[in-house]
Design a protein that fits this description.
Elements: H1 2-10, H2 14-39, H3 52-60, H4 66-75, E1 81-84, E2 96-100
Antiparallel strand pairs: 1-2
Length: 101
């Protein structure tokens, strides 16, 4: 699979690869939110402070406000930590916690 991805990326511009990776990460985040909820054995209709339809929309959303993410995670009894890190050219430096809620 990695070889197929590398082959496709070799035919794309660097900007197209960057955009594709960002889109993939957004899709993965939406899937992970639903997995977190399911791992905690919470149904969409059981989420505090959210209707079932709003939970469904959040879990399908590719982009959201950090405040919405914090509220969603709080309803699951979880916190959020956002860590900044240097891009590969500066990889020797360590990441720093930007937000921990």
């Amino acid at each position: 699979m990695k070889d197929a991805i590398k082959k496709m990326e070799s035919k794309m511009s660097a900007e197209s690869v960057r955009r594709a990776r960002i889109k993939a990460e957004q899709d993965i985040m939406a899937i992970r939110l639903a997995q977190l909820r399911e791992e905690r054995n919470v149904k969409q209709s059981e989420m505090a402070n959210f209707t079932q339809s709003s939970v469904s929309k959040i879990e399908k959303r590719k982009d959201m406000k950090i405040s919405t993410l914090i509220d969603y995670l709080d309803s699951l009894g979880m916190g959020l930590e956002i860590i900044t890190y240097p891009k590969p050219a500066l990889a020797r430096k360590r990441g720093k916690v930007l937000l921990k809620v």
